[in-house]
Model the fold of this input.
Amino acid sequence: MVERCYVPKSLEEALSIRKETGAHPLAGGSDLMVQYKQGLGITPVFPFPVMIISSLDDLKGIETLEDGSILIRALSTPAEIASFEGMPYPVRCAASRMGAVALRNTATIGGNLGNASPKGDLPQPLILLDATVVLKSQDGEREMKVDDFILGSKKTALADDEIIYAVRIPRVEYTHVYYRKIGTRRANAISKLSLSALARVEDGVVVDFRAASGAAGPKVIRSHETEDILKGHGVDEMDSLMPAVLEGWNNAISPHAMPEYRRATTRRMLEHFLSSIAAHQEGGIIE
Ligand SMILES: Cc1cc2nc3c(=O)[nH]c(=O)nc-3n(C[C@H](O)[C@H](O)[C@H](O)COP(=O)(O)OP(=O)(O)OC[C@H]3O[C@@H](n4cnc5c(N)ncnc54)[C@H](O)[C@@H]3O)c2cc1C
Done:
């Protein structure tokens, strides 16, 4: 049976269709069209009603808000995200390495979160930065951390009557920052493993340290307990604290496929970042 396809003209109409029919939003279609394509043909057959939201202006655009946070509306593409001035380094890196040029101009941040693949590139730096997702329904709006929105592999907290409206990245100060995606190629490859990390060092003391692992478990992994090991300590204590951080991180990740490779590589990346903090106290991008 062919399900219905709706083309709302406004966000209000989209929210009303969503509530009445439960139609799934189709934005760039780069996940949905592939998941439901039939054999060699390009015409997909969806087992549920869909609504094409790609022309909704209310879901387009990126802006810096008064408090310094960045609001990225749901239809923003990786190309737009990567080129937005002031975009935090790990988000810019992740966006600029998604797929090939065509995909970076078709895929959307709303679709990347909606799909909630453990290998999706954008959730990892967003979770590192404590970004939130803004969800709208006919009954109003709610905002929650991306980390809470993504429940697991392909599972989100999106309610049947909701649409992802935007992602908001709070202003985060850091002195040291790191991003690495390991794929078959630098870009145009699904992530095999990724890590982003940041630290803020003030007067030789680590006041903030965070890391987020992608493709090393059913969802992006942060370990607040492990992050706390470094906070408040001097960078001159790094050598003695590093084993506990690496051990804590190794316990936090749960790679399913090729676990030895993923654990060893994650350890090397984190070790590299941590030793670079001690070596480059003035800060910068760690490569
Ligand atoms: C060749 C190829 C290469 C790829 N490479 C990468 C890569 O390197 N990195 C990567 O992360 N991904 C990659 N992908 C996967 C895909 O492109 C991304 O996940 C993309 O961000 C999905 O966005 P979309 O708008 O196309 O999603 P869609 O296919 O339109 O939707 C995906 C899911 O999100 C839901 N959704 C979409 N928008 C909303 C909204 N506003 N509110 C609520 N739900 C919504 C849909 O209902 C659906 O469940 C690749 C895909 C292909 C085909």
